[in-house]
Sequence to fold (367 residues):
Amino acid sequence: MSIFPFVVVAWVCAVGLYGIITSRHLVHQIVCLIVVQSSTYILLLGVGYKTGAVAPYFYDIPLNTPAVDPVVQALALTDVVVEAAVTALLLAFAVQAHKRFGTLDPEELRQFQG
Amino acid sequence: MTPRQRRWIFLVAGGGFLAFYLWGLIGLPGFGNYPGPYGDIINAIAVPQTHATGVVSAVNFEYRAFDTLGEEFILFIAATGVATVLRHLREERDTSAVDEAKNRDVPATSDAIAMVTLAFIGPTIVVGWYLASHAQTSPSGGFQGGIVLATAFVLVYLAGQFIVFKRLSPIALTDAIEAIGAGSFAAVGIAALALGAAYLTNILPLGSTPGAVNSAGTIALISFFVGVEVAAAFILIIGELLEQTLIVREGDR
Fold:
C-alpha cells in the first residue's frame, strides 16, 4: 500500500481535470481547477512523510525527534497562496465575462470573439 | 469540438497519463520512506541556527525568505489585478438595493446571524494577531494570520453591515497598508544589505531561548509584515468582489 497516497493524487487530479473539460459554468470550472491544485498538496505532503515521525515543531519535544520534511510543507504553503491569488483573479474575470456577455457557459462564450 | 469528442480525448490522454504515472512511481521510495537528506538536515540545524522552534516558518522566512518575498508579491499583484479587472466601466455606476426597488423592503439580516457574527469579531482578531506574531514558535505565520484577520472584516459584512465594511476598510487606506506590509518585507532585506550582509540575512538578535516570542530575529518580523500584507490584500479582493453586487449598468433597467 506504499503508493496509495500517490494514487489518490492522480485520482484527485483526474477528477478535477474531468470537471474542467465537461463544465458548463465558469465558476464551476474555477472550483474544478482548485480541485486539480489540491492534488499537489497531497503530493507534496506525501513525499515528505516519514512513518512514525512528528510535525517539524520542536517547541516541547527534543531536537532529535524524527520529524517530517519541513521543506515540502513550506512549499505547500506557497501553493495555497498562489491558488488563492489565481482563484481571485479568475473569479474577477468571470464577473467581467458575465457582465459583458450575459452568460457563464463556456460553450456559449465561445461564440463571442474579443 | 463537441463535448463528446472532448471526453474521448480526455479518456485517452488520462489513460496514457495514468500509465506513465504508475510507471514513474515504481522507482520512487514508497510513502513513509522519506529518503532525505534536505528535510532531515533542516530539522537538525534550524533550531540552533535560527532559534525558531517552528521549522516550517524558519524555512519560509529564513532559508527560503527570498522565495517567500516573490510569493508575497504574487498576492500583491493579484489584488492589483482584481482591482484593475473589476474597475468601474464607463456605463456603470454605484447604486444600492434601496434605490433599485423602492416599493420593496430590503430584508434585514436576522438578529441571530448578526449577534453570532458580531460576537465572533473580537476573538477572530485576537486569533489572527496571535497567528501572525507567533510564526517562530508554533504552527502559524503571517499568511495564516493575515487570512484570519481579513475574516474579521468579512464577519462585519456577514452581520449585514456592508456600509460599515466599506467604512472600516476604505480602499485608499487598505491599499496603503498592503503596500507598507509588502514593502517592509523587502526593506528588512535591504537593511541587511546596508549592514554588509547578504540580502535577507537574519540581522536581528536571535534571543536566548529558542521558542520564545521575542526570539528568531527577522523571522518574527517578516512574518508579521506578511500578515499585514495578506490581511490587506484579501480585504481588498473581497471588497472589490462584493462591490460588484452594487453596480448597475445603465441599460439594465
